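Quiz preparation item.
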């Protein structure tokens, strides 16, 4: 094997993200080979269809094998995209919320690294033999903001990482995260989407999927009931106001300093967050892979610094 390949992975509740891919965290096990090899991971004598729906809430992602299996799928996708072969030494770059970073860092690193032992699996019919020889962990959101040079000139910036289940908050002062400002709110986009779905069901007696609602929020929907669209945007406005209120209650004043919104929720709420809400300077980073890209970016620079 050559030099370790740095691969960033963002382990979300609703979606897994790498620099080039985003897929749902659903994982369905099969004893026998499914009818298609698309998105199928074969590991330990079982078949797993990856990306169908989302995981049940797991506050501790190390308690089951699910997120390890999803990591293998993420690595395979990146290796194939980069034409990097099927036998590789991997330097995995990942993240944790700042609120639990110190507490969970060792357990999550051990969970992903597995003692640096080789692992063999098959993904979409292709055999892989990899070794996760090193795992670097960073605070979620922080690594993403470090890729935005213009923001680092600000003395203080609020970061809101809008994930599936949680919204992770922190303040960054002079490019350094202020640990005592970190909060994790159970106010992620899953709750928003569920509330929208329920309101549509009550008002219109329609059962819309999360994918339909997300497409409306991204303004790329077609053939969606117009009354449902109105409800979706109205409920998204209400959710946004509730989110901004929760951020203020956490002691972070979005009227006083720039607020950076990132993660999957930022892409969906882009049209609902603006200076009209009384924000000093809202910055929407709607690239859902930005955390994963940030993990890679920071790891590469730290490796270069170490070599020097």
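Solution:
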């Amino acid at each position: 094997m050559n030099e370790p390949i740095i691969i960033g992975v963002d382990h979300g509740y609703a979606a897994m993200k790498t620099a080039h891919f985003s897929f749902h965290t659903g994982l369905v096990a099969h004893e026998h080979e499914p009818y298609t090899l698309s998105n199928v991971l074969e590991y330990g004598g079982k078949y797993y269809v990856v990306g169908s729906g989302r995981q049940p809430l797991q506050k501790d992602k190390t308690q089951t094998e699910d997120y390890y299996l999803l990591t293998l799928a993420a690595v395979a996708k990146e290796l194939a995209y980069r034409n990097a072969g099927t036998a590789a030494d991997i330097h995995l770059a990942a993240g944790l919320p700042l609120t639990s970073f110190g507490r969970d860092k060792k357990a999550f690193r051990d969970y992903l690294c597995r003692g640096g032992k080789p692992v063999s699996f098959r993904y979409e019919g292709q055999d892989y033999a990899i070794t996760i020889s090193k795992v670097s962990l960073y605070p979620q959101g922080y690594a993403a903001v470090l890729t935005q040079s213009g923001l680092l000139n600000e003395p203080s910036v609020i970061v809101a990482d809008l994930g599936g289940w949680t919204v992770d908050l922190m303040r960054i002062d002079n490019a350094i995260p202020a640990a005592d400002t970190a909060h994790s709110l159970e106010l992620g986009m899953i709750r928003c989407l569920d509330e929208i779905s329920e309101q549509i069901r009550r008002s219109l007696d329609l059962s819309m999927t999360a994918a339909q609602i997300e497409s409306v929020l991204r303004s790329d929907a077609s053939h969606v009931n117009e009354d449902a669209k109105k409800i979706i945007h109205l409920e998204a406005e209400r959710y946004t106001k509730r989110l901004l209120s929760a951020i203020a209650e956490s002691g972070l004043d979005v009227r006083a300093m720039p607020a950076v919104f990132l993660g999957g929720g930022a892409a969906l709420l882009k049209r609902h967050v603006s200076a009209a809400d009384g924000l000093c300077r809202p910055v929407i980073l709607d690239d859902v892979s930005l955390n994963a890209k940030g993990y890679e970016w920071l790891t590469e620079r730290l490796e270069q610094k170490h070599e020097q």
